[in-house]
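Pasting as-is:
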Amino acid sequence: MTDHSSVMLIADALGGADSAAHARSDRRFTQSFARLVYTQIWEDPVVDLAALALAPQHRVVTICSAGCNALSYLTADPASVTAVDLNFAHLALADLKRAALTALSEHSDLASMFVAAAGERNRALYREQVASALMPGPRAYWDGGRRRPRADAFVSGFYRTGLLGAAVGLCQVFARLHGVRLRDALELDDACAQRRWAEKHIRPIFKGRVMSALFSLRHPLFLLGIPPRQFHLLCDGDPKRMPEVLAGRVEQLAGAAKSSENYFLWQAFTGGYAPGPSPALPPYLQPQNFDAVRARIGRLRLVHDSLTAVLARTEAQSLDRFVLLDAQDWMDRPTLAALWAQITRTARPSARVVFRTAGSAPPFLEYADTGGWSGWRRLDALSAELHGQDRSGIYGGFHVYELPA
């Protein structure tokens, strides 16, 4: 697979543009998003697992992104996990994680590559053990690169790469220019204190004239993987509100959980995970889950395609759990309707769909009683409870839908 095929898939997923200006923004976003964007996923897998309530017979299909959640679902011992993505770079990263879990027999080696994600040791681990376990396409991706192999990023500091890594680096620069040291929030290790710190030190940065003007534009937010349609949802159609919205989401992230338990906050404020032994890691990277995930790694399947296309090739009433991340925020109504038609066709009784939204409401709410949405019911209490527990803290809504038995 190539960057060109990713561009085509991403363009199809965005659906029709609402205007000529929107179409131009979609094209620019598509070109940006065809590269590596996320080095880790930004949806909390612990919350996902609580929503999914996985059992050994369950077959899961999920959007892949950086693969952290798909791998973490294996800790719950489902029958299978199929991870689908439009972006081949993200699938190549997920396959690298799969290959590392297959080839490395010690958790310390896995941690060297994907927790520290830097150091000469990783060059040897990749060349001598991990590379040979990769699929051909991902192997070509990691061995390729313009000036050096992409795998060398695990020597120089992998979590500083990707579009989001670049965005985190820029945020650190902006904070320093305003005299703010982001690590100060991490040293508080108290969720309420962290939120108050963000209100005091981060919100004024977004109120500045330059930053307000910058974040009122769509294109800078492409670094965060936010397409034009989702930009519109975030700010309720008023770009001038975006700095205020972003300040609020940073405060929400800062106060989601104490820093010693929130790796999302470490990634956002430092561009990496906490040093040394820490519970602030995705489940697939935690030492107590190492053996179980390795034993089940053969249940993971990676597919480069749209989720709708994958489901269209899947047997009716054969899937139990669907994880959509925030992908529906990208879609127009026909694209959404096609996706849900396939979800409903392939869902077994008691199936669940889990997703997040930039705003508070599902993007299909106005026509939820028609077409492929008919028959699904939102688990309101569970959705509200888990939204409050989501350590990522950057989304406006968390939603769990169930198909009655």
